[in-house]
Amino acid sequence: MTPSSTPANPEVLVIGAGPAGSACARVLAQAGRRVWLMDQHPLGRDKTCGDGLIPDAHQALARLGLLDAVMARAEPVAHVACIGPRGGRIDVPGTLAVLPRRELDELLARAAIEAGAHFEQARFEAPLEAAGRVVGARLKRGDEVIELRAPWVVLATGAVPKALQAAGMCERHTPSGVALRGYIKAPSMVGRIKALEVVWHQAVRPGYGWIFPAPNGCFNIGVGVTDSHKDLNGKGQKKDVNLRAIFDAFVAAYAPAQQLLAKGEWVGELKGAPLRCTLTGARWTRPGVLVTGEAAGSTYSFTGEGIGKALETGMLAADALLAAFDDDTAARARYEAALTALRPKFELYERANRVNAYPWLADLLIWRAKKSPRLLKRMSGVLNETSNPGNLVSLKGLARLFTE
Question: Could you tell me the pTM of the whole model?
Fold first, then answer.
């Protein structure tokens, strides 16, 4: 980071080049702000994720001007297949796609760079503070420690809480959930698994399994548990959850998963990752700092989907800074109001999370949806965020299943 090789005087340091950080950096750079996008990994780092792009991700990518570029690489999908413990299935239509995060995240980061953001590979160590306000960051690249000043720091550092702790923003050290996924190349299964298959079964309680068709004859297969830790005064304690055992149980219980493993070859290995959900677990702002993306808890419980909301919260952070860059109080208030407006959606998905604990609810919904076009439309509305997912499994909602 020498003056001769890099732009001087950054206005915003965006820490983390995942969807939230890159979206934030792109919007700011397009508006003419001097943005440095920092990540401890080189561009194109892998991320444990289901890779599913549901409608909110499509909408966010469209705003960023990147939807066509993403869809040119992604595997388009027409349905989410909800599969219950007894084998019942309902295909819920939606605007969907799958693109591995290694490709998606690199595309997003390069789009931020093309818009004018400057990228540096460096690890965030701690904030720089003066007069009660964060005024930059201490970063480490190799053995070199750099102190870089900027009026604003945006933390988009994902679910691992180390950066949040260093910045004094962490309220919950343990994750909301955990996931395990791998890739299998199985050209003979192309066309046989065409939907985003989400499977509930007693064998994988309190989680779920999935198989998503990816580009180039590959499939993303994994399991998730979105209520994996008890919260004990912000510290948390892991419940009795063994993801590898849950994955093995999923494969044993679901025949297409068995076929996929039998006919295909692993590409890499199974990888696990934490999830931070429901917009909880971290302070969203402090003077000079905004927290965005999964660091702020932007992943939905129940589904574990987080790409769309990471993009959206990153853009909301950029919007707040562009609206009131020189007014710390106003910028922070605008951003906190924007996240607060999203919170009811996250709470509804938290209510719907009971399906993972009680898989028979999935059987009931699937059974009725096969008989009720109105219910299928409501389930499609959950994907499009026009229907309330919590109502599907509330007492009132369950009663309605037998009347509509």
Answer: 0.92
